[in-house]
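Hi R.,

As promised on Friday, here is the backbone we talked about, encoded as structure tokens. Could you run it through your design pipeline when you get a chance and send me back a sequence?
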């Protein structure tokens, strides 16, 4: 399905905002000449103005604030998701209280915590199951895999895990925990797990010899 023209235009401008923001932050981080620092500061201000025009909720919206509040050299954010499958080949999903839709368990990577450890923790917190890390499915540019755009450039790491204990338990973030066959997947929380990304997780489950995907 093609992206609506209006959404495609917004995404294209978001890419430009991120590029300008990165240039501004690099300059503000490394420039020593005061005139260069002033120029990069002006570039940051103009970028924030462009971001404000893209904010749907009016200024100061989240995109403008993301530009204005950024500090230092910009790096991608990392979202970690865990994929578990039962003996029937069903995938474990949790339902988000935020939007009432389903997703692979996971969330932002925490400082001081590796990808595997973060995935294991997120599964325990959001589903009640105890799992062990098995292998990396891939590291993905989220917007190339069908997720809607967001202010920060974000990568998604998806890891395969196996259940070793626990039981289905909801949390403050989730109000549903269940297993789903690939032909009965419910409506997904697309900001967290897109249809395409989940389909790729099924492919990795079907073929354990697939190498990790790296965008």
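Update: got your reply. Pasting your designed sequence below so it's all in one thread:
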């Amino acid at each position: 399905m093609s992206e609506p023209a209006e959404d495609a235009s917004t995404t294209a401008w978001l890419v430009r905002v991120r590029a300008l923001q990165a240039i501004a932050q690099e300059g503000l981080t490394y420039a020593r000449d005061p005139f260069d620092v002033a120029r990069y500061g002006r570039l940051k201000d103009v970028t924030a103005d462009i971001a404000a025009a893209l904010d749907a909720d009016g200024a100061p919206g989240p995109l403008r604030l993301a530009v204005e509040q950024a500090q230092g050299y910009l790096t991608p954010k990392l979202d970690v998701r865990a994929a578990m499958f039962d003996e029937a080949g069903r995938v474990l999903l949790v339902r988000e209280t935020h939007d009432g839709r389903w997703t692979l368990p996971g969330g932002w990577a925490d400082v001081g915590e590796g990808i595997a450890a973060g995935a294991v923790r997120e599964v325990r917190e959001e589903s009640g199951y105890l799992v062990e890390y098995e292998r990396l499915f891939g590291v993905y540019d989220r917007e190339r895999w069908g997720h809607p755009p967001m202010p920060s450039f974000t990568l998604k790491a998806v890891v395969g895990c196996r259940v070793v204990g626990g039981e289905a338990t909801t949390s403050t973030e989730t109000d549903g925990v269940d297993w789903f066959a690939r032909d009965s997947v419910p409506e997904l929380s697309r900001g967290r797990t897109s249809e395409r990304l989940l389909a790729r997780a099924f492919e990795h489950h079907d073929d354990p010899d697939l190498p990790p995907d790296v965008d």
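One thing I noticed while checking it: The first helix runs from residue 5 to 30.

Thanks again,
M.
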